[in-house]
Design brief:
This is F-BOX/KELCH-REPEAT PLANT PROTEIN. The protein has 374 residues and is mainly beta. It is 14% helix and 38% strand.
């Protein structure tokens, strides 16, 4: 006969502490890895061990493999959202009701965050803001609810180019500053929490160095203004070099994207007299030659070039989870290329965007990672 304690659906059998307290930690982690992400996050405050699991790569890998993967998002920053950041779920293929805000990122941190703060970059699960009023940067992990203030290397400090670079067990921040008599580069290393200054480099980037650099094989790669070329900055040595590969002909603008280690892509307009007639995608091969991968279909090309008004300074690109995203500051949609399928698509406009929207669309790749250290 079934015990009375099990006959009532409202009562559950008690867990014997003498048995569960002897459960090996590796088995406990396997059990916890099957929990939904939201449930596991609620367990963080119960004990130090559960909280430490957020920063365990082995546990998070097991959590993902168990069928409870974190999603990946495209994050939108726009002046009309006023420090609210809508999220597009690139796995589910839809906009999420959840919107990131500074109050969610940093509860109780109103004294550190001013209305003039600007979202600069997002990479490897970390989000970086500029805080002009306090002459500093704010690096935060939304999921782990952790943050760090990074003071500018000098005061006052202005910069023309900013790149947030994920590296093993941390990150580096590259800023290019022309305030000094000779243009200077500052690199911040999160491992040692300090800035390093590199002086006296030639202004080989020209007037186009406001385009963000991309990280590839230990260096940052930039495109120059016409005549177009590609230059790179070695993060460790501080040396500048010009890539000796010949670029495709008849380019009207060029942008770079990279996965960090294996692939470097070039997106460019092709035409004459500064007017693009088509857009193409190339990949750098092992011989340092640019191999054409795809051409943007004609109708999609006409739409993108029309919304950019042939002002290519408004165009920027980045790589997100196998998607090459091509964006324009003046348009609320993303044009993207799915690398695995070799297909082009338009990302739908954010439904919460006002009917009368203004310019200033900034898109970022946001892939939450609990163990990303600030």
């Amino acid at each position: 006969m079934m015990p009375k304690s099990l006959q009532s659906p409202s009562r559950l059998p008690e867990m014997d502490p003498a048995i569960w307290s002897r459960l090996p930690e590796e088995l406990l982690e396997i059990v916890l890895s099957f929990l939904p992400l939201k449930t596991f996050l609620n367990l963080r405050s119960t004990c130090k061990h559960f909280k430490s699991l957020m920063f365990s790569r082995s546990f998070m890998s097991r959590h993902t493999a168990s069928g409870s993967p974190f999603s990946s998002f495209l994050l939108l920053s726009h002046p009309q959202f006023y420090q609210q950041f809508p999220l597009y779920d690139s796995i589910a293929g839809s906009w999420r009701n959840l919107t990131l805000s500074l109050s969610l990122l940093l509860p109780g941190s109103g004294s550190n965050v001013s209305p003039s703060c600007t979202l600069l970059s997002s990479s490897n699960g970390l989000i970086c803001f500029s805080l002009p009023s306090s002459c500093s940067l704010l690096v935060c992990n939304f999921v782990a609810k952790s943050s760090r203030i990074v003071e500018f290397p000098t005061h006052p400090f202005t910069f023309e180019s900013f790149v947030f670079v994920p590296v093993s067990s941390g990150y580096k921040i590259f800023v290019l500053c022309s305030k000094f008599s000779s243009n200077s580069v500052f690199v911040y290393d999160s491992k040692v929490h300090s800035w390093q200054k590199f002086d006296r480099f030639e202004p080989i980037l020209g007037d186009n160095y406001r385009q963000e650099g991309v990280f590839f094989n230990g260096s940052l790669y930039f495109t120059t203004s016409e005549p177009f070329s590609i230059v790179c900055f070695a993060l460790e040595s501080g040396r500048w070099e010009r890539l000796d590969s010949e670029l495709p002909g008849d380019l009207t603008f060029v942008r770079l994207v990279s996965d960090g280690k294996k692939k470097l892509y070039l997106i460019g307009g092709v035409g004459r007299n500064g007017i693009s007639r088509s857009m193409k995608l190339w990949e750098l091969d092992d011989k340092r030659d640019w191999i054409e991968v795809e051409s943007l279909p004609e109708m999609m090309c006409k739409k993108f070039l029309s919304v950019s008004y042939h002002n290519y300074e408004r165009v920027y690109c980045f790589l997100h989870e196998g998607m090459i995203c091509i964006c324009c500051y003046t348009w609320p949609e993303i044009l993207y290329y799915k690398i695995s399928r070799r297909t082009w698509h338009w990302l739908p406009k954010c439904p919460s965007l006002p009917e009368k929207w203004s310019c200033g669309f900034r898109w970022f790749s946001f892939v939450p990672e609990l163990y990303a250290l600030v």
